[in-house]
Amino acid sequence: MRTVIYNIGQLVVVPSGPLRGAAMNAVERIDNAVVIIEDESIAWFGAKGNAPKTDYEEAIDVHGRCVVPGLIDCHTHAVYAGDRADEFTLRTKGATYEQIMQAGGGIRSSMRAVRGASEDQLRSESQTRLKRMVSCGTTTVEIKSGYGLSPDAELKMLRVARELAEKTQIDVSTTYLGAHAVPPEFEGRADEYIAAMSDDGLLTTIRDGSLAEFADVFCERGAFSVEQSRRFLEACKRFGMTPKVHAEQLSHSGATRMALELGAASVDHLEHVSDDDIGALAKSETIPVLLPGCNLFIGGQPAPARKMINANLPVALATDHNPGSCTIESLGVIMSLACTMLKMTPMEALVACTANAAAALRRSRVVGAIEVGYQADLLVLDIPRFELWPYRVGVNPVRDVIKRGRPIYR
Ligand code: NIG
Ligand code: FE
User: Fold this and answer.
1) DSSP symbols for 290-338
2) Residue 249: CB within 6 Å of ligand 1?
3) Total domains in the fold of the chain
4) Rounded to whole angstroms, how far apart are CA atoms 355 and 69?
5) Which domain holds residue 32?
6) Whose CA is nearest to atom 12 of ligand 1?
7) Do 281 and 310 contact (CB within 8 A), yes or no?
8) Pair 234, 122 in one domain
9) Does 54 have pLDDT greater than 90?
10) What's 22's DSSP letter?
11) What is the DSSP string of 325-343?
């Protein structure tokens, strides 16, 4: 099956990632462009005048609209049940995220909801959420467990996340976040909890069921120490899961250094990252994933994105969509926040949500770029040039979502 997309007013030719430092802003655009898709992949792209003369089964005229690669949300907690709007209201009255967590709310509140939800209920709530993400241009999403906090409930979350790939037609990458919080039955016994969640039998079930590519931990005061996090991730790594870390979010813990020692795919959050950490990241393959939606939603200083890009880091962005610290589902909104709060350029923000986000999921040879042979994941935007997307905060310009060469949303 060969499809041609023509009359593209502006094609933003994001190359394969990771793109470091200045390269994030040096992306070419082609005016009056054509993209040729063969089956699931990009077969050719370029200026209309150079397009090869071949027959097509399908020709799509996009009438001067802008085309960009499908967006990749490389950090979400999109499988959960219920909401935490009551905590949202408490914060308007001065309560902080950490105070709510210490009082037994926060992650534990979502844990109660997830444990109490049937697998069907969890699937249907999460599917609705993912459909909205697709309508905002997300074509690949990472989803973490972490609200089960028991072997059975974590496995339930991972199974639901896996099934969502079929239901939504986008790619879902799954992460075992067994160490998100200490559940009440292990209160004061975090070491024992870590041992239970790194049990060989549980990790074998995850591996044999291909339930998770990555393992993640909330390394923070009030959650898990660097040593506990290391023990958990080392165990998961022995069972084939690649480490990721929630690092330096509310305070500086040293999680980034530990993550680098373990060869983590990404370190995420980084609001309190140190200059030494940035220097070490620059010499590594680990992707820094920034989540400015959290800073909008619960406050706190944003991560030093400019400093990182100037230090030649391949910065990625994600929504961190979850019921407690950020309910944003749209990467378009995140790109706007990256521009206003992190002082990233619109192009840097797009690269951070495509090529570099793909690298955070170790998929940068497959998605996140306009390159021949790459998966044909494309967005047709109802704007003539890309900058208008982050500029018009909260306005969704996504007109068509093409996944593996097929339209999945219009
Ligand atoms: O990425 N920091 C820890 N985990 C999530 C929040 C989870 C929650 O509050 O439910 C985060 O911000
Ligand atoms: Fe998170």
Assistant:
1) E-HHHHHHH--PPP-HHHHHHTT---EE----BTTTB----HHHHHHHH
2) yes
3) 2
4) 9
5) 2-69+366-409
6) 325
7) no
8) yes
9) no
10) G
11) TB----HHHHHHHHHHTS-
pLDDT tens digits, one per residue of 261-318: 999 999 999 999 999 999 999 999 999 999 999 999 999 999 999 999 999 999 999 9
* Locus of tokens 């306009």: 370
Same domain, 248 and 342: yes
Structure token pair of residue 64: 């001067």
Atom of ligand 1 nearest to the CA of 75: 1
The response to whether residue 323 sits with its C-beta less than 6 Å from ligand 1 reads yes
Task: State both tokens at 302.
Answer: 């944003």
| Structure-block tokens of residue 28 | 């070419």
Average pLDDT over residues 113-121: 98
The CATH number that applies at residue 22 is 2.30.40.10
Measured between alpha carbons, how far is 390 from 218 in angstroms, rounded to an integer? 30
- Whole-number Å distance, alpha carbon 76 to ligand 2 midpoint, is 6
Q: Is the CB of 268 under 6 A from ligand 1?
A: no
Task: Tell whether 146 and 40 lie within a shared domain.
Answer: no
Tell whether the model's pLDDT for residue 166 goes beyond 90.
no
- Indicate which residue's Cα is closest to atom 3 of ligand 1: 218
Ligand 1: distance of its center to the CA of 97 in Å? Answer: 10
Question: What are the start-end ranges of the E strands in 39-109?
Answer: 41-47, 58-61, 66-69, 71-73
Predicted TM-score (pTM) of the model is 0.98
CB 246 less than 6 A from any atom of ligand 1: yes
* Helix, strand or coil, per DSSP, at residue 236: helix
**Half-sphere exposure in the Cβ direction for 133 (13 Å, CA):** 39
Cβ(389) – ligand 1 distance below 6 Å:
no
Note the pLDDT of residue 65: 98
